[in-house]
Amino acid sequence: MRDWDDEFANMAHVPDSDKLQAFWAAEGEAYRQQLNSFASLSYGSDTREIVDLVLPDSRPNGLMVLVHGGYWMRTSPSDWTQLAEGARAQGWAVAIPGYTLAPDASIAQITQQVQKAITVASEAVSGPIVLTGHSAGGHLVAHTMCTDSALPQSVLARIKHCLPISGVFDLRPLLWTAMNDVLQLDDAQADAASPVLFRPYDQARYTFWVGAEERPEFVRQNRLMATMWDGLGVQVAKFEDPGKHHFSVIEGLRDPASPLTTALLNID
Asked: 3-state secondary structure string, the chain?
C-alpha cells in the first residue's frame, strides 16, 4: 500500500512551511489595517461561524468567496485576508467564511456551515458569485456545487464559476492516514464527503487548479476531478501552475493581474 501519510504531507516537502501560519496571520492583520472597508458577519452561534467581508472602493462587481484550507482542522479566515486583494482590486467583494474545526465538527457539518456562510454573504452583496478555496477549502467549494448542495436555488443560480485550488476531492485515501484520528471518517462518511463521486450543478463553469510541483496525490486528484466532471455535461478546465507548490500556488490571489485571479473572475 502507498504511504498515504506521505502523499498528503505538504509541510514535510516544503522548507520552512511550519512558519507559514504565523506569517499568514501577521500578513492578514497588516492587510486589514490598510482596508477602507472590512466587516465580520455572523451566520450562527458558534464563535467560528463568521464570514469576513472585504469590500472594494466602489460598488462591487460581484462576490468572490474564498474558503480557507488547513485539512479541515487548522487556520482561520484571519490568516487569509490578504489573499482578497487581487479580487478586491478588480472591484469584487470578497467573503472568507470561518467554520468549526475538526474534531469539534465533522466534514459533513463543516460543509453545511460553509453553505450557510455563502448564503449569508450572498445576502450582503448582489451580483454574480465566484467560488474558490484552497486544499480543504477546495474540497468544500467543490462539494458546495454538487447536486446534494443545501444552497438555495437563488444563490446557486448566481454562481458562475467555481475554481478549487489544490483540492482534495476523493477523501477515501484519508482513511489510511494518521490525520483520520482527528477527522474520524469511516467508509460511508468518506464516500458521502467526496465530490468526485457526485454530480455537479450544471449551470456553472469549473476550473480545477493545482501547483505543478505539489505532492503527486494532489496533482492526481486535480486531474481525476476534472476528468470525472468533464464527463457529466458541465464546462470544465484544469490547470497545473508551473513551479508552484501547495503553499505558493495561492499567492496569485493577491495580484489583480495574475493568471489565477484572471481565471477566477472570468465569468463569460
From this structure: CCCHHHHCCCHHHCCCHHHHHHHHHHHHHHHHHHCCCEEEEECCCCCCCEEEEECCCCCCCCEEEEECCCCCCCCCHHHCHHHHHHHHHCCCEEEEECCCCCCCCCHHHHHHHHHHHHHHHHHHCCCCEEEEEECHHHHHHHHHCECCCCCCHHHHCCEEEEEEECCCCCCHHHHHCCCHHHHCCCHHHHHHCCHHHCCECCCCEEEEEEECCCCHHHHHHHHHHHHHHHCCCCEEEEEEECCCCCCHHHHHHHCCCCHHHHHHCCCC
| Cα 179 from Cα 169, distance rounded (Å) | 16
Q: Assign 249 a pLDDT band (cuts: 50, 70, 90).
A: very high
Inform me whether the pLDDT recorded for 192 exceeds 90.
Answer: yes
What is the C-alpha separation between 23 and 256, in angstroms, rounded?
22
Q: Which residues are bridge partners to 67 per DSSP?
A: 133
CA distance 268 to 161: 9
pLDDT, position 16: 85
Give yes or no for a contact between 239 and 209, defined as CB atoms under 8 angstroms apart: yes
Query: pTM here?
Result: 0.97
Q: How far apart are the first and last CA of the chain?
A: 44
Q: Are 218 and 234 in contact (CB under 8 A)?
A: no
